[in-house]
């Protein structure tokens, strides 16, 4: 099954499961499977409604949206990109898709846009409210044609942290991931604007993920690629994200 419109397809297959085998048996079978399907199931059983993160009004916007983690990217390539106002920045869409894409910022701006005023919560104990604009991740995945083997979306970033002691230290790239349920969520967007202005370098210029039902570290900044994969096991440390790999943070960081 192609997941060209994968939200609808997922709903249809859940209904098909219901009518074929008894609802209880169906529930037990799915409840034993992966954590991600488990959560999807609970949402589906709740009347098929999607839980939305709270949205705020313009008056609630924080006067300054602080930067956290990396506040720029320490590479010659990024400095060059910044100097030309990110005119040649690309977002690659790769992995388990029918049509791999290489999107420019104008391609991204030409897609239908969503603007949302949401609260960002960082595990370090601060929050900020900002207005984010960008296309929904689902429209990008629909263009690329997600294949049925895909279970997760991995977000690749331009920045990195150095880990380990002085001369033994190694470069570890920042990355993140989510399941298809969150990838399909209406508030999951690839933002190129904060408060009506192009995304500042501090906050991930020129593109960053907004994954509104999860904590701050999931919102990957300095996005270079979106990759559909079947499993997270072979991606970097295998835990689905930079902080998950190096510090044992939860992969599903629900708020
Ligand atoms: N690429 C990248 N994305 C990242 C980080 C980072 O260091 N690098 N930090 C994360 C953390 S912990 C938080 S709280 C938010 C901070 O976003 P902000 O800099 O816009 O406040 O970005 C997240 N995404
Ligand atoms: Mo954070």
TrEMBL record:
PROSITE patterns: PROKAR_LIPOPROTEIN. Residues 85-229 form the Oxidoreductase molybdopterin-binding domain. It holds the Pfam family Oxidored_molyb. This is Molybdopterin-binding protein. It comes from Aurantiacibacter atlanticus. The lineage of its organism: Bacteria, Pseudomonadati, Pseudomonadota, Alphaproteobacteria, Sphingomonadales.
């Amino acid at each position: 099954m192609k997941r060209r419109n994968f939200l609808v397809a997922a709903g249809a297959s859940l209904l098909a499961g219901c009518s074929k085998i008894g609802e209880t048996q169906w529930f037990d079978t799915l409840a034993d499977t992966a954590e991600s399907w488990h959560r999807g199931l609970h949402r589906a059983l709740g009347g098929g409604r999607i839980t939305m993160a709270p949205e705020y009004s313009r008056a609630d916007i924080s006067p300054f949206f602080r930067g956290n983690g990396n506040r720029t990217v320490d590479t010659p390539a990024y400095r060059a990109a910044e100097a030309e106002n990110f005119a040649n920045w690309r977002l690659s869409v790769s992995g388990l898709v029918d049509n791999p894409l290489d999107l420019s910022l104008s391609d991204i701006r030409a897609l239908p846009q969503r603007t949302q005023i949401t609260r960002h919560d960082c595990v370090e104990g601060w929050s900020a409210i900002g207005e984010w604009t960008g296309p929904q991740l689902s429209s990008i995945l629909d263009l690329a044609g997600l294949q049925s083997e895909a279970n997760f979306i991995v977000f690749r970033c331009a920045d990195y942290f150095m880990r380990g002691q002085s001369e033994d230290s190694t470069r570890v790239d920042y990355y993140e991931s989510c399941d298809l349920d969150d990838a399909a969520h209406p508030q999951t967007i690839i933002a190129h604007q904060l408060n009506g202005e192009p995304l500042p370098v501090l906050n991930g210029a020129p593109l960053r993920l907004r994954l509104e039902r999860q904590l701050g570290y999931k919102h990957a900044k300095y996005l270079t690629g979106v990759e559909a994969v079947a499993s997270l096991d072979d991606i970097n440390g295998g835990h689905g994200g930079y902080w998950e790999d190096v510090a044992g943070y939860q992969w599903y960081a629900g708020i």
